Amino acid sequence: MNRIAIIVAVVLATLAAASVGALALASGTVAGKLPEGSKISGVAVGGLTKDEALALANRRVAALITRPVYVQLGEKRYTLTAQQANVKVDIRRPVEQLYAAGEKGSFLKRGFREITGEKSKSNLPANVTINRSAIGAFIGRIEKEQALKPVDAGIKLTLTKVSVSPSKAGRRLAARDALMARIARRLTTSTNRRTLRAKTIKTKAKLTADKVFDANPVAVTVSRNETKVRVFSRGKLVKTYTVAVGSPEYPSPTGQYVVQTKQVNPAWNVPNSAWAGSLAGQTIPGGAPNNPLVARWIGFNGSVGFHGTASAGSLGSAASHGCIRMAPPDVIELFKRVKLGTPVLVA
């Protein structure tokens, strides 16, 4: 080897040794530290020791994550704190992962990263646990406060008027499961978006006004003072009958009822009462001359109902033992108009 070659070799060897030394020195400066540029939940922890990173992340990351989450629903704002949701933030695991990543490779590679200013792009999330049952209970409180049961339409009876009270829509919380997932995401990240907007949706009533009249198009009222029966079809008065009602000793029971039974030429089960005389406790066949239940029976309160009568002179008075006596043609016509379940008001 000539002299020039020897000099070149010596120079190269010196430079290589210097480079290795520089890399070793650079490697030494980052030993035991997290890689530059690394983050935990957006908080920079690069260049820090594990203890320093733990301290910083516990202060800043935990403070960000454990902020309350709010649910806005209309004018109402609901608050769920990290304590209520039992939020637990573990920083140690991502710190250990970042530290292990910085220790990978030879001292030459670590030194090269330091000299060239290469930065890590790692942004590891903190390990966060929550109590989902607590979130469910929080949503349950919102649901309970916001929920409204729908109100069905209903029939309204007076002696001279039949109408239907309107139905009212209810409301319930919309997308409950999705809201729970959104709250969980907010509670486990350091995002500044801590307010969520929730909505309610309408719930329809089962019975609308039309459905009420479809179910019971006919209604019947009995005025004891007027001795009148009125028949309404879908709220309109279609027929009025003069009848006999219960006497002062045996008044027709007042209240709102429904048609319970319908019979053609009904038998009469005579009550065991003194007024029944020798017939008390007997059953008189339908159509028999001594059967006061003529032609039809429309029961609406046990043993009380509409029936035809052979005593036309009693119509327009308070003369019965509680039942509503009608002229036979009238009770036959009423029998055709009503069905089981037809509402009946006696007042």
Brief characterization of the structure:
The protein has helices at 3-30, 50-65, 92-103, 107-116, 132-146, 176-187, 209-215, 328-337; strands at residues 39-40, 43-44, 69-73, 76-80, 88-90, 123-124, 127-129, 154-157, 162-165, 170-173, 195-197, 200-203, 218-223, 228-233, 236-242, 245-246, 255-258, 261-264, 268-269, 283-284, 294-301, 304-308, 318-320, 324-326, 343-346.
Question: What would your notes on this structure say?
Answer:
The protein is an alpha+beta fold. It has a domain at 216-346: Beta Barrel (L,D-transpeptidase catalytic domain-like), CATH 2.40.440.10. It has 8 helices and 25 strands. The strands form 9 sheets. It has a 5-stranded mixed beta sheet, covered by helices on one side. The protein has a 4-stranded mixed beta sheet with strand order 18-21-22-24, with helices on one face. A hairpin with a 4-residue loop joins strand 8 (154-157) and strand 9. Helix 1 (3-30) packs across helix 4 (107-116) and helix 5 packs across helix 6. The chain is rod-shaped and about 150 Å long. The chain starts with a helix and ends with a strand. The model is unreliable at 17-31 (pLDDT under 50).
